[in-house]
Design brief:
With 443 residues, the chain is mainly α. 66% of the residues lie in helices and 4% in strands. It has two domains: 218 residues, no CATH class; 206 residues, Alpha Horseshoe (Serine Threonine Protein Phosphatase 5, Tetratricopeptide repeat), CATH 1.25.40.10.
């Protein structure tokens, strides 16, 4: 699992009094993102929403919450992902948030926040993403996520919007063949929350108020609906694997090993233990567990990626390169796998690997234009190859995505000075310069 991307730490420090432990982060992981998309897509299609137009982001936060912000972006906290007991419960959450998207509730919320510092930041990051890669959603999502961390209560919806999202979500669940009773199961997880002080409530209950009449209406409606068909064995497998992976990385190793003891011989338990052993660190046991997983699924790109991560973090860059190469062989269009290969190549100490690293990282950026960590690695590869202009451009793009506009401007100006006039890179640098100047004038 790649290192989480910090959510605009400088912005957060100005908006909320939170220390490092309270800073939110996004988790980027190819396997988890693929699993969430597979689970969400039937709901999105049922809502007549193009799945590729919706981005689902995993927020590294133990609090139980999910929300939509910055357009068609759904944020789900790790706390909620690991708490929900089934795929249909997860689909129920996604269906409800999709109801807000389909109902245009976030557009009205955004209008009500016009002029606030949070909205200015959100618009600024969106403009940056538009400029650097034609992908405004990712940049908007990062900024909106920061705003959510700072002011969750601002995203609480009205009674009418909650009721509309409820009804829409139920329709989407039925159309997708999911079990609508999962909606009630999710709500019952938060039963009694409204009797608590706001500071004691789970964020999901704060931002999705559970009024008695709303629950009664849902119970009455659900009773009349078909129960759908159970998720397939394959869906259940990938969902369990996602949860095991999250718990392996986010819980203390000792706690993971207690939850997934050696007596549990399931594959997902073995995955969680492999991660826990690696993090202890017990390299030998982690390696043996990982090799056992690969013996059963030798062509699994995500197991190969995990092996590569283990090796790279253990100091074996050459072994990591081999693992990442095989992962990319089986999933050549996964930008995070390409990014991992590029990072491993940069760590071998062999200058001859730098050109291959640049190629892998360039391909990663082409597929995912708003990943700051990959842009950082790309800048390093370009610098090692003597391409100072390209290195400055990649650095400018990274700073723009992160909302660090003065740094983005400085590097964009340097890139424009070094790159051939009229070249594609020079034009991107000029666009960045123009955008950062506009942001400066607005502020």
């Amino acid at each position: 699992m790649p290192v989480p991307i910090r959510f605009l730490a400088a912005v957060l420090s100005a908006m909320v009094a939170a220390g490092p432990a309270g800073a939110a982060s996004m988790i980027r992981d190819a396997e988890i993102e693929r699993t969430l998309a597979h689970i969400a897509n039937p709901i999105l299609r049922a809502a007549s929403v193009t799945p590729s137009s919706v981005h689902i982001y995993v927020v590294n936060d133990r609090e139980l919450n999910a929300f939509v912000a910055g357009g068609q972006n759904i944020f789900i906290n790790t706390g909620l992902l690991t708490k929900l007991g089934s795929i249909d419960e997860l689909r129920a959450v996604i269906a409800h948030e999709t109801g807000h998207i389909a109902g245009g509730h976030l557009a009205r919320l955004d209008q009500s926040l016009q002029g606030s510092k949070g909205m200015a930041i959100l618009g600024m990051i969106g403009a940056a993403a538009v400029t650097i890669g034609g992908s405004p959603e990712a940049g908007m999502a990062i900024a909106a996520g920061s705003q959510q961390v700072a002011k969750r209560e601002m995203l609480a919806h009205s009674r009418g919007e909650e009721a509309a999202a409820d009804q829409a979500g139920l329709r989407f669940m039925v159309s997708a063949g999911a079990d609508p009773t999962a909606v009630l199961t999710v709500i019952n997880r938060f039963a009694g929350q409204e009797a608590l002080m706001p500071s004691q409530m789970d964020p999901y209950a704060r931002t999705h108020p559970l009024w008695g009449d709303r629950v009664a209406m849902l119970e009455e409606r659900v009773a009349t609906l078909p129960k759908g068909t159970p998720p397939s064995e394959e869906e259940v497998y990938w969902h369990k694997r996602m949860v095991a992976k999250l718990e392996g990385f986010l819980k203390a190793p000792a706690q993971t090993l207690k939850t997934y003891p050696p007596s549990d011989t399931s594959e997902t338990a073995a995955l969680a233990r492999a991660i826990a052993y690696h993090r202890q660190p017990d390299v030998a046991r982690g390696t043996r567990q990982m090799e056992a997983l690969l013996a059963s699924r030798p062509d699994d790109p995500f197991y190969l990626e995990l092996k590569g991560q283990f090796l790279l973090e253990s100091g074996d860059a050459a072994g990591a390169v081999a693992a990442y190469r095989r992962a990319v062989e089986f999933a050549p269009k996964e930008p995070l796998l390409l990014g991992g290969l590029g990072r491993a190549l940069l760590n071998t100490g062999d200058d001859g690997d730098t050109a291959e690293a640049r190629a892998a990282l360039t391909s990663s950026v082409r597929l995912d234009k708003a990943n700051p960590s990959v842009l950082r690695d790309l800048a390093l590869a370009e610098a090692r190859l003597g391409n100072e202009g390209a290195a400055a451009l990649a650095t400018a793009e990274r700073f723009a995505i992160e909302g660090k506009m003065p740094d983005a401007a400085r590097n964009a100006i340097r890139a424009a000075d070094l790159l051939p006039t009229g070249s594609p890179g020079w034009r991107r640098a000029q666009d960045l310069i123009t955008m950062t100047r506009r942001v400066k004038r607005r502020n």
